[in-house]
Each structure stands twice: as C-alpha cells, then as structure tokens.
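Inverse folding, one chain.
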C-alpha cells in the first residue's frame, strides 16, 4: 500500500487511537466460525440499510444543506462514506494477497469489540484526510448509492463464502496497530455507522430545510 493510502487509513481511524484497551479475544483460530461469519454479515447489512435509509427521501435542498461553512452536508458525508468504503476494502484485498502471519494473532485480541463499540462513537472527532474529503466525484446521488452498494455487496459475499483464514492475515493499522482481515471488514461497517449518525445530526439543525 502506498504512503497516501496509509495516511488515509490513519486519518479514518485516528479517533480510535485512545481506545487500545483489553477486551475479549476473537472467538476462533483457523477459518471463521459460523457465528463470526453471521455476525459480520448481519452487521454489514444492517449498517448498509441504515445508511441508505438515512439518505432516502432527502430532497435536493436537504441533500446540499450545510449547517455551517465548515460542516459537511448530507451529500458530502455520503460521498465520504462511499469513498472510505473503497479504501478499506482495497486494504483487505491487499492483506489477503499477502502471506498469512498467524504468529501475530495475539496482537489482534480485543479488536473486534473495540471496532464495533468505539469507531461509531462520535464523541471523539477526527479530521478527514485530503484524499477522503468530498469533491463531488459522483455525478448523481443514484451513482453514489450504486457504487456504495456494489462495494458493500463484494464485502458481504467475501465474508459469506471465503474459506481463507482471515484471522491469520494481519496488517498494522496506524492507530490500532495489528488488525486481522476480519476486523478490517467490520471496520467498514463501523465507519459507515459513525457517519450515518453524522447525517442524522445534520437533520437536527434548526435551519435544516423542511422539504
């Protein structure tokens, strides 16, 4: 992975850097258990549905509304979600092509729960890197949604069907250190959940258009 991509990932997860604490270890060694597989699939599907529901029915005025000049609109937040999804999914693919390194499994203990609980927590803010700042890259809202759904579908299919040992493909996360491929995948769900909450915040602004 090039230096720009590493910087992108570092910024995505910087809000979690303070949470490197001990919690229960992943449940299995070797290939994923049925429970782990189902847990990840359900989480990816739920966070996808929540994100799509959050932008469904939003008018053009609501889509572009900014609570302040330095705050993101719903359109910008949605673009950030879709763009980050691609970056993280690309990271997982690179990890799976690299040799397994199961000797590092002990370093990933506790990271499942940390990702699920701490990444969506917006009490700690993070600034997006330039590469993930919204630029209007999608011509239409429909194009953005289609792109996001295609990437998320690949992740879900991967978790459902892979026979690979995701727990033994481990790569350093600039904020959380060692994370296995399973944890990187669920991180995408947690990241979209974090920013779906940001979309909900936009809608609570007193000046948010009624229609």
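Residues assigned per position:
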């Amino acid at each position: 992975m090039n230096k720009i991509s590493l910087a992108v990932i570092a910024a995505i997860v910087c809000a979690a850097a303070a949470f490197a604490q001990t919690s229960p270890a992943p449940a299995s060694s070797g290939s994923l258990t049925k429970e782990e597989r189902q847990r990840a699939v359900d989480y990816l599907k739920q966070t996808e549905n929540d994100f799509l529901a959050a932008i469904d029915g939003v008018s053009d005025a609501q889509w572009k509304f900014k609570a302040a000049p330095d705050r993101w609109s719903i359109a910008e937040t949605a673009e950030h979600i879709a763009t980050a999804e691609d970056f993280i999914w690309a990271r997982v693919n690179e990890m799976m092509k690299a040799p397994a390194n199961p000797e590092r499994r002990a370093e990933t203990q506790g990271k499942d729960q940390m990702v699920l609980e701490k990444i969506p927590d917006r009490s700690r803010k993070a600034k997006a890197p330039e590469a993930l700042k919204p630029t209007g890259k999608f011509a239409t809202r429909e194009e953005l949604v289609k792109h996001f759904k295609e990437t998320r579908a690949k992740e879900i299919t991967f978790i459902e069907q892979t026979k690979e040992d995701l727990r033994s493909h481990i790569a350093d996360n600039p904020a959380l250190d060692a994370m296995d491929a399973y944890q990187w995948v669920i991180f995408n769900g947690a990241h979209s959940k974090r920013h779906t909450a940001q979309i909900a915040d936009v809608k609570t602004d007193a000046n948010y258009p009624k229609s």
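The radius of gyration is 17 Å. The chain has seven helices and two strands.
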